[in-house]
Write a structure and sequence with these properties.
single chain; 415 residues; mainly alpha
Length: 415
Amino acid sequence: MKFTKQQWQWILYDWANSGYGILVVTAVLPVYFKAVAGQAGVKAADSTALWGYANSFGTLVISLLAPLLGALADYPHAKKRWLNFFTWLGIILTIGLALVPIKLWKLLLVVYIGSIIGYSGGNLFYDSFLTDVANNDRMDRVSSTGYSMGYLGGVVVFIIFLVAELTNGFNGLLTSYGVARFSFILAAIWWIIFGWPLLKDGRQHYSVENASNPFIDSLRRLRKTLYHINQYKQLTWFLVAYFFYIDGVDTIFTMATVIGKDLGIKTAMLMVVLLVVQLIAVPFSILYGWLADKFSTRRIIILGIVIYFFICIYALRLQTLTDFWILAILVGTSQGGLQALSRSYFGRLVPKNDSSEFFGFYNILGKFSAILGPFIVGLVTQWTGKSTVGAASLSILFAIGFVIFTITSSKSVND
C-alpha cells in the first residue's frame, strides 16, 4: 500500500518520539534512576515503586486536561499549534534530564514527570491527526505502519546508544552516568529531526467552526458531549474496555526494565532483550494491520488482549533469564499491533470534525489506566516483595477488557 506525503509525515512522527519511548521510558532512565536512588540508600523494591508512582503522577496532569485540550484543538489550524507546544515541552525537559546532578534523584523524577506531560500531550494531538491523514479504509494500515516505524526508529536509536554503552562511553570519553545522559540528549535530537516534518507541515482537514472565545466554547462542547454521551454508546463501551486492557499494555511497557533488574538480570543483557523486542515489534505491527484487513479489526484486537492475558499469567513463573526472554518476545509480538488497531478502531467511531475532542477522551482513559496499572504493580510489589507478582496482578485488567470489548463491540465497524 502506497502512502501519501502527509501520511508519511504522520508516520515519521512515531519514528521521531521513539527515542524518548525506548531510551527514557523503558531502557535507560529506569536503570539510571535505580542506580542513583540506590546510591542514595533507597531500597530496590522502593525505587521500583517510586518509578511506578512517578509514571502514574506524570500522566495524571495530561489526563485531566486531555478532553479540554482536544476540544480546543478542533478549531481550524489549532491542532498543529498544540502538537508543537507539547512536543517542544517534552524535548526541552528530556534535555533537562541530562542536566540534573546525580545526587538530586528526587529532582530527576520531577523533570521526568514534566517530560511525560510533553510526550503524552504531543501523542494526544498526533493520534487525533490520524483522522486528517487517512480515511476509514486506510486507517488500520496507516496506524499499524506508524507503530511499526516507531519500533524501527527505536531500534536504530537504541543501537546508537548501545555503541556508546559497549565501547565504555566511546573509549572512555563518557563515564557510565555520562552514557545515560548522552542517551537523553540523543532522544531529544532524534525527536527534533524526525518530528519536524509534521510539526511544520501538518494539515488539519476537519474542524469545528471558529468561536470568539474558544476556551468557553470548548467547555460548552464538552458539556454537550457528556450530556449526550448516550448517543455514542458503542464508542463509550469501547473506551471502557480500552481503559482496562490498555492499562496492562502501558504498565508492562513502563515497568519491564525495573522488573528485569529485580530478577538480577544485568543491564547489558536487558538492553539486548529490549533491542530484540523492538525488532520483533516492527514486522508484527504491520502483520496486525494485515490481519485486521483480512479478518476484521475487532477479531485481531481480541486476539491481542488474549495474548497479553497469558503474558501476565506467565509472569508468575519468571525466575531465569530464559523466562524473561520468553515473556519479552511475547510482548514484542502484540504490543504495537494492539495499540495501533485500538487507535484506528476508535478513529472510525469518532465524528471527524470533533476528532481531537474525542481523542481527548481516548487519551484520558488510556492515561488514567496508566496511572492505575503502575500503582497496582508498585503496591503489590511492596506488599509481596516480588515484582513478578505485581506484573501478574495485571491479568485481571485484561480479563475485564476482554469481556467488555467482546460483548459490546460491533462487527459492522470493522468487517
